[in-house]
Amino acid sequence: MRTLTSLVGASALVLTGAALPAKADDAVTPPDQKVIVNGAGWGHGKGMSQYGAAGAAKQGLSYDKIIAFYYTGTTLGSLPKGNTMRVWITADTDSGLHFRPAAGLQVYDTAGHKVNLPTSSKYTKWRISRRGTSRVLYYRNAAGKYVTYKSKLNAKRSWWVKNTKTGTVKLAMPNGSTRTYSGRMALRFKGSSAVTVNYLSMETYLRSVVPAEMPASWATEALKAQAVAARTYAAKERQAKPAGYIYDICDTSACQVYKDNSTRYASTDAAIAATANKVVLYKGALALTQFSSSNGGWAASYIGLPYLSAKQDPYDPVRTWTKTITASSLQKAYPSIGAFTTIQVTTRTGVGPFNGQGRALLVKISGTAGSITVSGGSFKSKFGLKETLFSFTTSGVNTAAK
């Protein structure tokens, strides 16, 4: 989704059109108790369309031209070299930091103490756990039992794990898998629990973001545009965090996808290097460089951010889709309506396809016991739709791109 999690809530993302809301669609009464949803796009449609960036690159646009099209009125600037990102590893859910033995592993604290971890067969896994307001270092022995490892580390200070030889840490995940990450790992306290946070440079971070967000086989200029958008998005998230926050960004599509080192490719590494430290600025400040898979041929606007404007996108190949929703599923989702009778988009953004009417803002579902009106975004989430560029029909003819 790539919304700025620190600054905006879901309600701020509902109104995406720049024009006044458009007139209502005709109500649809399906004779066979099935509603056909015809739509286009995938994601929120704001900012850069990834399929659009690929299309623009195929037409010969350079990455800076792609950025300029999707983020209207912006310029390119640079971040300082060597800036650090702190990434919350969300799949590590057991409130401990588990990692595999390796030559060169070291744990150190903010008081200047450090311990070089042994690698003999006696030590099969390492774990840092929280005990009240303190940290405890354990090793798992050959019998599978965790034993406290005594050291001079200050239990009340923050600890980091790094590998002085490889620069990577092999994180042991709760599901039994192993992920290799660059940089340092830390167990940071969050409320009464604790989370795993990966510390690494911005440019190294991007090596595991860009190929997770865009296929590494895509055109070079599209990959460069993705690198710049992802770098700017991460820097904006970091900037928005209040003092004392324990991480800058998460590793899922709720922020932007960050995977371990196994996802890296030479093509995306080259795109990152070619755009090193480049970010998108609007009036000298970091822009909110949202992006999504496809905007369906029409970019959505973001109220209050002029550089995220609603406009036709000639580069996005307009990826249409169709989904069938049954009357029973509508009744289950909205039981207060009774037996389902009709469904209607009552308000649109006023800019975009559907004869210029645009994205669905409000949807009315009616039945024998009454009706309910929900936001287009809420309806999209409830039924797993890809975008709010949709209409309801009783046939499978998709008119979303018109």
Topology:
Elements: E1 34-40, E2 48-49, H1 50-58, H2 63-70, E3 75-78, E4 84-88, E5 96-99, E6 105-109, E7 114-116, E8 125-131, E9 134-140, E10 146-148, E11 159-163, E12 168-172, E13 178-182, E14 184-190, E15 193-201, H3 202-207, H4 210-213, H5 220-240, E16 249-250, H6 266-274, E17 278-282, E18 285-286, E19 291-292, E20 298-299, E21 311-312, E22 320-326, H7 327-333, E23 340-348, H8 353-356, E24 360-367, E25 370-375, H9 376-382, E26 390-393
Parallel strand pairs: 2-19, 4-16
Antiparallel strand pairs: 1-22, 1-26, 3-17, 4-15, 5-8, 6-7, 6-11, 8-9, 9-10, 12-13, 14-15, 17-18, 20-21, 23-24, 24-25
- The mean pLDDT is 90
Spans of at least 5 consecutive residues with low confidence: 4-19
Distance between the termini: 25 Å
- Largest sheet geometry: 4 strands, mixed
Widest beta sheet: strand line-up: 14-15-4-16
Strand content: 25-35%
- Helix content range of the residues, please? 10-25%
> What structural class should be given to the helix and strand makeup?
alpha+beta
Oligomer description: single chain
Query: Radius of gyration over alpha carbons?
Result: 25 Å
**What is the global morphology?**
globular
Counting structural domains, the number is 2
